[in-house]
Amino acid sequence: MKNNLNVIIGKRGNLSTRLQKNLKNTYLISADDVFKNNIVTKNFEKKRINLIINSFYQSSKLNNIQNLDDYIKQSVIIITSTLNFFKKYKINKIIYTSSSSIYNFDKSIIYKTNHSSREFYALTKLICEKLIIKFSTHHKINYIIPRLFNVFGGEDNFSIISKIIKSFKSKKIFVLYNNGEAIRDFIHVDEVCRIYEKLLDKVENKTIDIGNGHGYKIHDILSILSHDKFKLKKKSAIEQKVSISESDIFKDLNLKVKSKLNLNNYLKKELKLSNNINLKKYYFNKKLNNTDKIFGSIIYGAGNAGKQVCNLILNKNEDGVFCFVDDNKKLIGKTYKGKKIISKDQLKKIASRTSIPNIIIAIPSIKNNELKNLFNELYTYASSVHNVPLKSEINTNKILLSDIQNSEFLNFFERNQLIKKKNIYKSLKNKNILVTGAGGSIGSELVLQLSRITKKKIICLDISEFFLFNLKNNVNFNKNRTKLVLGDINDQNLIKKLILREDIDIIFHAAAYKHLNFLEKNPIQAIKNNILGTYNLIESCLRTSRKKIKMINISTDKAVKPKSVLGMSKRIAEIICKNYEKKYSKYIDISTVRFGNVFASKGSAISVFLDKINNGEYIELTHKKVERYFMSVNEACNLVITSSLLPQKFKTFIFDMGKPVNLYELIKKMGQLKSLKDKNFELKVKEVGLYPGEKLKEELSMSNKFYPTSNKKIYYSLEPTYENGEINNLILNFKKYLKSYNETKVMLIMKKFLAKEI
C-alpha cells in the first residue's frame, strides 16, 4: 500500500541497512534519534507504519557491571521509548527482531547463579519480547517476533562466520570454544530481508524462528581451512552447544532458498576456495530415539517433586522440559504433560549422540551422599546438573522454581543435612516481616523461606531496582502479601512509614555492602550503609513503633578481630545492636547472627572461581594457605530464621560452620570436577598476595568460646561491651567527618574505637 511506511529502528545495524535496500518506502532511525527526540514527525503524517525494531546491544559490550546501565538503556529502554513515541501514530504492524539465544536462556539461566554476558543478552531480548506483546495486545496492533538464528553476510562484523573469515585472511589466531563441537543454524542477511518482506503481509500475531532448519558443526567449517594458514587457539568454555531452528521458515512462507546465499557457496566465494564445499547438515528432530538436539531440561525423578518442577518450567516455557528419567520400571514409557518417562540406560544413549544442556534432580528424599554420587554420574552426560532442595531444607512440600540449586557445590563441601524440628516456625505465621537488602543473596533466600511460613505481609526493601526485579521473577510473588519497596535504609522517613503503615513485627536486617576489596577503597560508603544504616533502622523502630519489635542483624566472621573496612563496619554495627538491646530491651529485641562465607551467593569467591575454570582463565588466588568457612545460602537462612526464635538477652548467635576450607585445595577439587567433562582441561592458578584487610584465617568468636543453645547448629558467644557515651560520640564523629568526605579521619575513628579488639 502507498500509505504504508516501513520505519526501521537501528540505523547502524547490518540487517537495517540491508532492509533499507530491499524494502520500498523505508525510513531509517537510530536509537540515539529516539532518545534525543530528533525524529522528523512529518514523515509519519497520514501514514500507516510498519515498525521494524532491530536495535540491540551486543553481549560483548557487557564487560562488567559498570556497563549495565548503558546495556539496559540500549536493549530495553529503547523499546519503551520507541513504543511511547509511535503509539500516537497509526501502527499497522510491529516486527521486533529477537534472537535464538532466548532458547538457551529459557532452558538454563533460570537455574544458574552465575550468568555470562550472552545469557544476560538473552534475558534482555526476552524482556523486550514481552513488552512488545503486551503493548501490541493492549493497542490491538499486529505483531511478529522473529527469533533470528546465526545471521551472516552483508556488512557483518559480529557473527562467528565473519570472525572465521577475518582470522583466515589475516592469518591471525582464532579462538575456538567447545572444541568446535557447537552446532549452529546459519542464514544469510539477504535471505532474512526476503523473509521480512513476506512477514509484512502476514496478519498472524506470533513468535517465529528465522533459520534454515538445519545446522553445521563449527569444527566442520574450520576443517575446510588449511592449517598452515589458520591457527586455532582452543578455549574450554561451556556455551550453548546446539542452535537449530525447529521449523523451515522457507517452506512455511513458500520461498525458495537462493543457492548463492547458502553457507557453502558464501565461504567458497569469500575465502576464494577452488574446491566445492560440502558441509554435513544436522537437523532438529523431535523424536526421542533420534535426537540431534535437545531443547529444555531433563528431569530426573518422575514423582511429585518432578511433576511440580515440570509444571513450573512449562508455565515459563512450553519447550522447557524435554523428558523425565526414573528408576521405577513401572513408570518407564509413560508420559506426564506430554513428556516421556525414560530409563537411565536410555538417557545414556541420548548423551552418547547429542549434548544435554541441563538435568534437574527432583528427588527431595535422597540422602546427601547419594545425591553427590548421582550428580557425579549425571554430570558426565550434561553441561549442567541442578537439584531441588532436600526435604530437610524446605519448610513445606511446595517447590518453587527459585529453589532449584546448582549441584556442583555439593562436591566441594562436606555439610551434614539440616535437622529441623516440626512446627518450629509456627510463631512466625502471623507476623508482618520487613527484610532489608531483600534482593541480595541472603535477603532473597530469606524472602523465599519466609513466604512459605507467614500468612501475613513480607515487605522487601532494597536499594537496587535490578535486584528487586529479579526477586519478583524468582519468588512466588503474591502482591497481596509481598510488597517490593525501592529505597535506602538511611531514609528515616521511609523506614518510619514502613514500620507504621505495614505494622511491622520483625525485621531481618540483611542490607549491607560486603565486598572486601571495594570497601577498602570506599570506607565512607561502608560507614553510611553498614553502620549508620543499622543505627537509623534501630532509631526508626524506637521512635515509631507502638509495639515491641524484634530485629535480627546479619553479620559476618569478618567482624571478629577485624582488619578490613568490611569487618570493622560490621563489628561496629554489632556493637550498636547489642548496646540498644541492653538499653532499650523493653521496646526492642535485637540479636546478631554471625556466620562465614555463603557459597553460590552473588559475587562469591566460589562463583568467580567456577567462571574462571569454565572459561579456561587464570584464577587469582591471594595465598595458598587462605582458609574460609562456608555454608549454603539455604542453610544459612534456615538458621537465621531459627535464631530469631531463640531467647536473646544480649547474645551474639554463631552458626556451626564445620571445618574451615583451604581455598587452594577447593580450587583443585573444582579442577578435578571440570576434568570429568573436558579431558584437555588445564587448571591455571596465579598467587597474587593477600589483599589489604584480608586475613589468612577467619574466626567466629572473639574469645573462641561457644555456648550451646536448644539448636545443635547454633551457639552463642559473649562479646565485649561498650558504654553508651562511646557509641553516641562515635555516631556524631562519623556524621561530622562524612560531610567533608574525610576518609582518613573516619578510618582513624573506626580503628581507635575498636582498638581493644583489633
Features:
758 residues, alpha/beta, Rossmann fold, 7-stranded parallel β-sheet, 24 helices, 37% helix
Description:
This protein is an alpha/beta fold and 758 residues long. The protein has 3 domains: 148 residues, 3-Layer(aba) Sandwich (Rossmann fold); 124 residues, NAD(P)-binding Rossmann-like Domain (Rossmann fold, 3-Layer(aba) Sandwich); 328 residues, 3-Layer(aba) Sandwich (Rossmann fold), CATH 3.40.50.720. 37% of the residues lie in helices and 20% in strands. It has 24 helices and 37 strands. It has a 9-stranded mixed sheet, with helices on both faces. Strands 1, 2, 3, 4, 5, 6 and 11 form a 7-stranded parallel sheet that branches. Strand 27, helix 19 and strand 28 form a beta-alpha-beta unit. Helix 4 packs across helix 5 and helix 16 runs parallel beside helix 18. The radius of gyration is 29 Å and the shape is globular.
Short description:
This protein is an alpha/beta fold. The chain has three domains: 1-148, NAD(P)-binding Rossmann-like Domain (Rossmann fold, 3-Layer(aba) Sandwich), CATH 3.40.50; 288-411, NAD(P)-binding Rossmann-like Domain (Rossmann fold, 3-Layer(aba) Sandwich), CATH 3.40.50.720; 426-753, Rossmann fold (3-Layer(aba) Sandwich).
